[in-house]
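R.M. (postdoc): so does anyone remember the format we settled on? I'll just put the structure tokens first.
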């Protein structure tokens, strides 16, 4: 089975971040501890583990300032690489999140950056949901958006955007 960066990130998120109320910086600080061994025992390759920690490091370094979302901003035009790697549902979902105030423009750009950094040929809507959740988790002032996004991922019947 081919493990991806997203698989490692989801494992970290489910086993360390979400359940322990740890910050991403706490997990990064533990990168040289038994955590690396635990990830290897869980079946992840050292290369994918390293890429996942690089992904998290880039997330913490690129944290945008918390701002109020702008519903009337300019229309986002996707770059050809984004069009090739993000499927139609993923792109539509991302723009819908911004239009409804779940993400602001800076957070949207961070989500796009981190989605493309997954090193996958195609990023689906489900993959993008996890990226959005991880980005919101690391954003001060985004607790309500994070909680809503978490229900979208974990609920059997997600609530519609209004």
């Amino acid at each position: 089975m081919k493990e991806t960066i997203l698989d490692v990130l989801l494992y970290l998120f489910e086993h360390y971040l979400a359940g322990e109320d740890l910050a991403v910086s706490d997990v990064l600080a533990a990168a040289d501890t038994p955590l690396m061994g635990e990830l290897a025992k869980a079946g992840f390759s050292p290369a994918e583990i390293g890429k996942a920690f690089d992904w998290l490091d880039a997330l913490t370094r690129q944290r945008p300032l918390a701002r109020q979302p702008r519903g009337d901003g300019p229309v986002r035009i996707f770059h050809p690489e984004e069009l090739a790697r993000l499927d139609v549902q993923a792109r539509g979902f991302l723009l819908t999140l911004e239009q409804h105030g779940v993400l602001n423009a800076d957070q949207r750009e961070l989500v796009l950056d981190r989605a493309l950094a997954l090193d996958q040929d195609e990023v689906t809507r489900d993959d993008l949901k996890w990226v959005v959740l991880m980005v919101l988790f690391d954003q001060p002032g985004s607790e309500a958006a994070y909680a809503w996004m978490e229900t979208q991922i974990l609920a059997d019947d997600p609530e519609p955007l209004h």
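R.M.: ...and that's the designed sequence above, right after the tokens. Also worth knowing: Residues 5-20 form the longest helix (16 residues). DSSP finds nine helices and no strands in the chain.
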